[in-house]
Specification:
Blueprint (H helix, E strand, L loop, with lengths): L2 H15 L2 H26 L4 H25 L25 H33 L1 H11 L3 H22 L1 H14 L18 H10 L9 H21 L2 H13 L7 H15 L2 H18 L4 H14 L10 H9 L3 H30 L21 H13 L4 H26 L5 H41 L2 H13 L3 H16 L4 H11 L1 H5 L5 H14 L8 H10 L3 H11 L6 H7 L10 H20 L9 H16 L5 H30 L5
Helix pairs in contact: 2-3, 2-9, 2-18, 3-4, 3-9, 3-18, 4-6, 6-7, 6-8, 6-18, 7-18, 8-18, 9-17, 9-18, 10-11, 11-12, 11-13, 12-13, 12-24, 13-15, 13-24, 13-25, 14-15, 15-27, 16-17, 17-18, 18-21, 19-20, 20-21, 20-23, 21-23, 23-26, 24-25, 27-28, 27-29, 28-29
Length: 693
């Protein structure tokens, strides 16, 4: 090869290596690893006050998210880095026939990655400014006042977090943030009617309250808990994913699916439930686990709309599953000022009621429509050995949280360290067994650890913006007095009747939660709705669980139903048909919160819980039988479904009349289902031996 040819090849190779994607991918990797290590080191050292730590966390998280946005613009569709051009990939459009709007979109597609990189730099600069002036902004500013630059930095931070939220979670929650700022402005507030009227504030006050007074964006609960307790668990989930936990759960699901008449259906529910508890977003969980489970369900013969609804309901319901509860457990414990274990205890029975009823409903629906799996086989327990090492970090998590009563931040630290150690030992053991333990395999161990740190940071980065945006929203509705007036209005409209107040609170919780991630929806409805319910005499934890339940259910409630929308897109089904199926499967979820308000021992455990829990559980099963229209043996007529419905409500709320009514109703439901099961068994025996006829 000639010297010029060799030089040309080397230059081309250098250009490929220095393409925008490779440069941004490297920057994202470095920043993601730094972001995760910073969080882990803070959990170990507690080197700053939490507010100061949160500011640096905010800058790193927002910058990482924007760099990742820019990186994805340049990412090739086939994953071949060598073929990446130096320009972002626009949509394939015939430029001779496009409209002016399409031209504008095409131009935006080209400049947007540059804007994202610029915003990443502004995020680091703004939070760096706050860090440099932190002592003045925290202590001296109340006497000296804010400078003009302080106010500009405050506005910049508000704009950044709202834009990051728009990109990560869509327009709904970002629009709410913008609307809250407009609502707080002096030009708007005094001109609004009735309960919405207030004096209004100029842009300097909005900048101060929204960010630069170290409130709003730096909200003590949302950003304080989000940057510590929430972050450590989200990063653990990302690290566990890099070490193969998600793949292991899905592999076990497929194997178990071979042994059940219902196939992979129930396994899809369990996998989505587990991952939904950790991710903190019903929509994100539907998108990630649904991309695996929905095709599996369809392969088994499950209808498209039903497959989408199963995944959507399971993903949404995972938000209430302890110990993480979609990160809302951490927020709830801090808001209520109670121990984290108390929140876990309060969440166990509501989660069991919901998931058991959903599991039964799906089981009956599969039997009703004949979607059973014909390829039943025995489960191979040897495959569990491949993921046995995951039991150790999960055990550490439970022991440190529940038994030792460490803070979630400390428990998360120990769990992350454990999964690094266990995961590395597992990889090293596999290499040694294959006689492949050398320098190259040692490099693979390091690469796997770095990949885990990178994944953990990338999993957390999109949530940083939404936590900060929710802080802005809460600050705006609080200091304008809207939250207090909404609670007073709900009580007034209820006329002092608890049932009416609860129904109004349910409607408000669902409406405020539409299109939002569950933790964000929970915080908003707690501020606006919960005080009115508490004033009616409902205990605090029960009230928070009540509004949280309905904020979670907003993910499957039309017209937005964000989880169903994503699930139906993956399944290729009708959105409205999938919504109907999701509401049928999730029907008990809209009644269970009223049941634990009525039967408070479901939240605050006592001797009464031993009786109340199975009785209410029987009622929820009766409710799902009525909505599905099948009892395990036959399709039910509407009169029979009405009887089941009446028995279900008596089982769940009969104690309002007499506890004997509640127990009797539960006994009737159980007896009817046992009889149905006996009929099924007889029919199966008769099919196997026709002489029984």
């Amino acid at each position: 090869m000639s010297e010029s040819s060799s030089s040309t090849t080397e230059t081309a190779g250098t250009e490929r290596r220095l393409s925008p994607f490779s440069v941004l991918d490297g920057a994202v990797s470095v920043l993601a690893v730094v972001f995760t290590l910073y969080t882990i080191y803070y959990a170990y050292s507690l080197m700053f006050v939490r507010l100061r730590y949160s500011n640096i966390f905010l800058g790193l998280g927002i910058a990482l998210y924007y760099l990742d946005v820019a990186r994805r613009h340049y990412e090739p569709e086939d994953g071949d880095v060598d073929e990446i051009d130096s320009e972002p990939r626009p949509s394939v459009i015939d430029t001779d026939s496009i409209t002016p709007i399409q031209r504008l979109k095409l131009a935006f597609a080209r400049i947007d990655p540059v804007v994202a990189i610029l915003f990443a730099g502004i995020a680091l600069a703004a939070t760096g400014y706050v860090e440099y002036h932190f002592t003045r902004l925290e202590q001296d500013v109340h006497l000296l006042g804010h400078t003009q630059m302080d106010l500009y930095v405050g506005i910049a931070l508000i704009v950044l977090v709202i834009d990051a939220t728009r990109r990560a979670f869509g327009n709904v929650i970002a629009s709410v943030a913008v609307a809250s700022i407009i609502y707080a402005h002096a030009y708007v507030g005094p001109n609004l009617p009735g309960v919405f009227r207030h004096t209004g504030f100029d842009w300097t006050r909005i900048s101060r309250q929204g960010a630069i007074e170290l409130t709003g964006v730096y909200h003590e609960t949302l950003m304080g808990i989000g940057s510590t307790w929430v972050a450590i668990f989200i990063m653990f989930a990302g690290i566990a994913k890099a070490y193969g936990l998600m793949d292991f759960v899905l592999d076990v699901g497929r194997e178990l699916g071979k042994t059940l008449r219902t196939g992979v259906v129930q396994i899809a529910v369990i996998a989505s439930m587990i991952m939904g508890s950790i991710t903190g977003s019903a929509a994100a969980n539907t998108a990630t686990t649904g991309s695996f489970t929905i095709p599996m369900l369809k392969d088994q013969g499950v209808d498209d709309d039903f497959a989408a609804s199963i995944e959507a309901v399971a993903s949404a319901g995972g938000q209430m599953l302890p110990p993480v509860m979609g990160v809302a457990a951490f927020l709830m414990a801090d808001l209520l000022g109670v121990s984290y274990v108390s929140i876990i205890q309060a969440g166990v029975i509501p989660a069991a009621l919901f998931y058991f009823s959903v599991g039964v409903g799906i089981h009956f629906a599969v039997l009703k429509y004949g979607w059973t799996s014909p390829n039943t086989d025995s489960f191979d327990p040897r495959m569990l050995l491949g993921g046995l090492h995951f039991v150790i970090p999960l055990g550490v998590l439970l022991v440190t949280l529940v038994y030792l009563r460490y803070t979630p931040l400390t428990a998360g630290l120990y769990t992350i360290v454990t999964i690094f150690v266990v995961g590395s030992m597992k990889t090293a053991f596999t290499s040694a067994r294959n006689s492949d333990l050398d320098v190259e395999s040692a490099g693979a161990l390091v690469k796997q650890a770095v990949s885990g740190l990178r994944t953990g940071g990338l999993e957390m980065a999109p949530l940083v913006g939404v936590l900060a945006s929710m802080g802005v929203i809460i600050e705006m509705v609080t200091f304008t007095g809207l939250s207090t007036r909404v609670s007073t209005t709900i009580i007034g409209m209820g006329g002092g009747e608890l049932v009416i107040v609860l129904i109004l609170a349910m409607i408000a919780s669902i409406m405020f939660g539409l299109g939002m991630p569950t933790p964000a929806a929970y915080i908003l409805v707690v501020v606006l709705v919960a005080p009115g319910v508490i004033e009616m005499g409902v205990p605090e934890i029960t009230t928070h669980m009540f509004v949280f339940y309905f904020a979670m259910l907003s993910a499957i409630t039309p017209p937005v139903a964000i989880s169903v929308a994503i699930g139906s897109r993956i399944a290729g089904s009708s959105f409205m048909k999938s919504c109907v199926q999701a509401l049928r499967l999730g029907a008990p979820g809209f009644v269970i919160p009223f049941a634990f308000v009525t039967n408070n021992s479901l939240i605050y455990w006592s001797q009464e819980t031993v009786i109340v829990f199975p009785v209410v559980l029987a009622g929820t099963i009766g409710l799902i039988v009525a909505t599905v229209g099948f009892d395990g043996a036959r399709d039910l007529s509407y009169p029979v479904r009405g009887l089941y419905l009446g028995a279900a409500f008596a089982g769940m709320f009969g104690s309002l009349v007499h506890v004997g009514v509640q127990i009797a109703a539960a006994a009737v439901i159980i007896a009817a289902l046992v009889h149905a099961r006996m009929v099924v068994g007889y029919d199966v025996d008769r099919a196997a031996d026709p002489t029984l006829d």
